[in-house]
Amino acid sequence: MNPLNHVAIIMDGNGRWGLKYKRSRNSGHKAGLNTVEKIIKESLKQKIKYLTLYAFSTENWKRPKNEINYLFNLLENFLVNKINKLHEQNIKLKIIGNKNLSKKLSKLLSKSEKKTYFNSKLQINLALNYGSKIELLNAFKKIKRNNEKINEKNLTKHLLTKNIPDPEVLIRTGDTKRLSNFLLWQLAYTEIFFVRKLWPDFNEVDFVKIIKKFKTIKRNFGSI
User: What is the CATH number of domain 6-130+169-216?
Assistant: First the structure.
């Protein structure tokens, strides 16, 4: 049975769900946040140590300004109202991505990371303003600047996921089969599960089914 320490999720389909059921993309983002809380709770139950959530990509800046503002307001409210609960549950929050955001949000993110820094039951990596291509380019620039050898070890230590094990499982909801510039280096040997459901419809039962399936997969890593 395969051990499972790290699950990464591309939470796709919020906007489409909102348009389908509420005639509003923003309503879908709000509903998607409820799913996030359910999956965090189930991750604790399943004793998963790392959960990486793709919240906002570097490409998402192309979206309408009112939608972007709504997304960040949702995140701000979540941090204000939920960070103490996460802390009490021994959950650590880490942001991976470019933190050059609004002054208010940047301050909240920094405060949340500091508050939960020593927690150890579950680490939530929030991929926010994140793009894997930029992450890799920046890692190579650091290697060059430090006059280091270009090798796997040195590249890995300069990634935003330094000291975080690569995901064993990637889940993408929304019936879309692509990686969308997410953890391109880290997903080299990850088992990928594409789910037809839109993210707000994804639930604990779906999550557990994937976990059970993963644990039965024969993982060869290039061997036979």
Answer: 3.40.1180.10
Which residues participate in catalysis according to the annotation?
A: 12, 60
The model's pLDDT over 56-75, given as tens digits with 9 standing for 90+, comes to 999 999 999 999 999 999 99
- Both structure tokens of 157: 């230590």
Q: Is the pLDDT of residue 191 over 90?
A: yes
What predicted TM-score, i.e. pTM, was given to this entire model?
0.96
Helices (H) then strands (E): counts for the chain:
7, 6
Please tell me the distance from the alpha carbon of residue 92 to that of residue 117, in angstroms, as a whole number: 6
Distance CA 130, CA 14 (A): 18
- Which of 198, 176, 172 minimizes the C-alpha distance to 28? 198
Domain ranges of the chain: 6-130+169-216
Which pLDDT tens digit goes with each residue over 151-173? 999 999 999 999 999 999 999 99
User: Cα separation of 74 and 88, whole Å?
Assistant: 21
